[in-house]
Amino acid sequence: MEDLSDRRKIYNLGYLSESELKDNPMELFREWYLSAEQSDKISETNAMTLSTVEDHLIPRTRRVLLKQYTWEGFIFYTNYHSRKGRAISKNPNVCLNFYWESLEKQITINGIAEKLPPNLSDGYFHSRPLGSQLGAIVSPQSEVIPNRDFLENKLRELEIATNNNSEIKRPDHWGGYIVKPYQIEFWQGRPNRLHDRIVYILQNFDWIIQRYAP
């Protein structure tokens, strides 16, 4: 085992003051996201951690990709029969987290996940590479499979059956979610561990803004 207690990082790249805040947190999210997009040290700006709560209140987390953000919320796509999909169907309260280490910035979002309308899921599904479309069909996500060959064989069978048809029907078990936020926290690393934490909370259709102690 290894003792990591002496690991230290000095945070000094920025600050978050009240004068920089927007009335709507989605405006600030967009500002921070575009800043991260411009950094050559971040390879996947849209990678985010998604946390769900499963049966018996067991939490589970994984990385997924943000595919769109709107005034309403944050959109990602997945297999509805996966562990995350099953968890969301029982408890739609989820948490998203973006951590951009090179900027010393973090955004944590609490919200309610709702399925997208089928036409929006159709549109995104057909924008994907053909191989990704076929992969979404053949993979029984989160289920036990005997080996890797099981997937490869199913993929080959589907390729033959579809004859590389560019218009594949989206399976009903695959589609998008939008996470509609009710709380968003913006974290900026600061010296001496006195980090900036600004929290937006949705109350009666208005966002209130609070500063939390680090």
Key features?
alpha+beta; 214 residues; nine-stranded antiparallel sheet; Pnp Oxidase, Chain A
Written overview of the protein:
Strands 1, 2, 3, 4, 5, 6, 7, 8 and 9 form a 9-stranded antiparallel β-sheet that branches. The chain has helices spanning 25-37, 83-90, 118-127, 130-138, 148-162, and strands spanning 47-53, 59-65, 68-69, 74-79, 93-100, 105-115, 174-188, 196-203, 206-211. The protein is an alpha+beta fold and 214 residues long. The protein has a domain at 18-121 and 175-211: Pnp Oxidase, Chain A, CATH 2.30.110.
Name the shape in a single word.
globular
Class of the domain at 18-121 and 175-211 in CATH? Mainly Beta
CATH topology of the domain at 18-121 and 175-211: Pnp Oxidase, Chain A
Secondary-structure-based class equals: alpha+beta
Question: Main sheet?
Answer: 9 strands, antiparallel
The assigned CATH architecture of the domain at 18-121 and 175-211 is Roll
Average pLDDT, rounded to a whole number, is 95
Percent range for helical residues?
A: 25-40%
Give the SSE order as H and E letters: HEEEEHEEHHHEEE
Query: What is the overall number of helices?
Result: 5
Low-confidence stretches: none
Family: Belongs to the pyridoxamine 5'-phosphate oxidase family.
Function: Catalyzes the oxidation of either pyridoxine 5'-phosphate (PNP) or pyridoxamine 5'-phosphate (PMP) into pyridoxal 5'-phosphate (PLP).
GO molecular function: FMN binding; pyridoxamine phosphate oxidase activity
Enzyme class: oxidoreductase
